[in-house]
UniProtKB/TrEMBL annotation:
<dbReference type="GO" id="GO:0042597">
    <property type="term" value="C:periplasmic space"/>
</dbReference>
<dbReference type="GO" id="GO:0006629">
    <property type="term" value="P:lipid metabolic process"/>
</dbReference>
<protein>
    <recommendedName>
        <fullName>glycerophosphodiester phosphodiesterase</fullName>
        <ecNumber>3.1.4.46</ecNumber>
    </recommendedName>
</protein>
<dbReference type="Pfam" id="PF03009">
    <property type="entry name" value="GDPD"/>
</dbReference>
<dbReference type="GO" id="GO:0006071">
    <property type="term" value="P:glycerol metabolic process"/>
</dbReference>
<dbReference type="InterPro" id="IPR017946">
    <property type="entry name" value="PLC-like_Pdiesterase_TIM-brl"/>
</dbReference>
<keyword id="KW-0732">Signal</keyword>
<keyword id="KW-0378">Hydrolase</keyword>
<dbReference type="InterPro" id="IPR030395">
    <property type="entry name" value="GP_PDE_dom"/>
</dbReference>
<dbReference type="GO" id="GO:0008889">
    <property type="term" value="F:glycerophosphodiester phosphodiesterase activity"/>
</dbReference>
<feature type="signal peptide">
    <location>
        <begin position="1"/>
        <end position="28"/>
    </location>
</feature>
<keyword id="KW-0319">Glycerol metabolism</keyword>
<feature type="domain" description="GP-PDE">
    <location>
        <begin position="29"/>
        <end position="349"/>
    </location>
</feature>
<comment type="similarity">
    <text>Belongs to the glycerophosphoryl diester phosphodiesterase family.</text>
</comment>
Length: 354
């Protein structure tokens, strides 16, 4: 980060402290690289994960879905037309289909209809090229990585840097894949155990669906693979595996008590921690009262992703006041924050510690 950027960041932090004022917790937040350094490289590629580690991420986050032959690969969704060049492959034209995923009808190409060898012929592309045109310049360069390849990268970078980087995998569409006969939880636990990870290592397993986390809780110890678990919570709706329950019920005091029986923390949409005027909600305090860690998603730098008061100028692709967002989430009680912008997160964290 250049000198002018550091000055702007420091001024933003100072302005925030003056305006609110801030009372910040002593512990700085853990930085979770959301889909890798996805603000700088196409998401869920080895290049994105490697850059995130080099920029200083504490954890890297692969979202996991299975291939037809049961291999876990990193994609945000099992439908891959938005993040790969699959539509440009005539040999796969007949694989395009329509499916119902978690109650939503989706048309496209799906990982579970491709073997790993077939997926390896595809190349990644930027999911939001209009907002991140710099990332789109890397289109066509990177493969879809497997979980095993991501683990190998993390291990290699730890050996190179002397700094252990954690893994924060998400089980995507667990109940959907369970119904198809895929054992994604078992596959994940087996891979982590084979790589030598234990409960003492920096590993979190996350899911929006409580069923997957309960499976991890009870199957993990039996397999010798017991890992920390995070219940993801959105501002609206509810989990696909429990259509009778809303996320609002999860974060009510009695809901948090229930979550604490099978999870170690909650991963919540940022708006659940910070009110529209910037003041903290009581969610973090309530969660910590029952022993749950609080992780927030997702801090992004571009104006397009920021609330209106934190935008700078009219250009949706330009960076807004990311530093203020970071400080607000820290003040609201977030122990860790998912971010697309690792370098900016490191700078914001450092500025708040100085």
């Amino acid at each position: 980060m250049g000198g002018r950027a550091v000055i702007r960041l420091s001024l933003a932090i100072a302005a925030l402290a003056t305006a609110l004022p801030l009372t910040l917790p002593a512990q700085a937040q853990v930085i979770i690289a959301h889909r890798g350094a996805s603000g700088d490289r196409p998401e869920h590629t080895l290049a994105a994960y490697e850059l995130a580690i080099e920029q200083g991420a504490d954890y890297i986050e692969p979202d996991l879905v299975p291939t037809k032959d049961g291999v876990l690969v990193a994609r945000h969704e099992n439908e891959i037309s938005g993040t790969t060049d699959v539509a440009d492959h005539p040999e796969f034209a007949d694989r395009k289909t329509t499916k119902t995923i978690d109650g939503v009808e989706v048309t496209g190409w799906f990982t579970e209809d491709f073997t790993l060898a077939e997926l390896k012929t595809l190349r990644a592309k930027e999911r939001v090229p209009d907002i991140r045109p710099g990332n789109a310049e890397y289109d066509g360069q990177f493969e879809i990585p497997t979980l095993v390849e991501i683990i190998a990268l993390a291990k290699a970078k730890a050996k190179e840097t002397g700094r252990l980087v954690g893994l924060y995998p998400e089980i995507k569409h667990g109940s959907y894949f369970d119904a198809l006969g895929f054992k994604t939880v078992d596959s994940l636990l087996t891979a982590l155990k084979a790589a030598g990870y234990t409960r003492e290592d920096p590993v979190y397993i996350q899911s929006f669906e409580p069923t997957a986390l309960v499976q991890v809780k009870f199957r993990g110890p039996a397999m010798g693979a017991d890992y920390r678990r995070i219940q993801l919570v959105a501002a609206d709706g509810g989990p696909a595996d429990r259509p009778d329950v809303t996320y609002a019920q999860f974060i009510a005091p009695e809901g948090l008590e229930l979550v604490s029986s099978y999870a170690d923390g909650i991963g919540v949409q940022a708006t659940l921690l910070v009110n529209a005027n910037g003041s903290p909600t009581d969610l973090a305090a309530n969660a910590k009262a029952v022993g749950l860690d609080v992780h927030a998603w997702t801090a992004r730098a571009e104006n397009a992703f920021l609330p209106v008061p934190l935008r700078v100028g009219e250009d949706p692709t330009a960076d807004g006041n990311f530093a203020m967002l970071w400080a607000l989430l820290r003040r609201a009680g977030a122990d860790a924050i998912f971010t697309d912008n690792v370098a900016e997160a490191v700078a914001a964290r450092t500025a708040l510690q100085n």
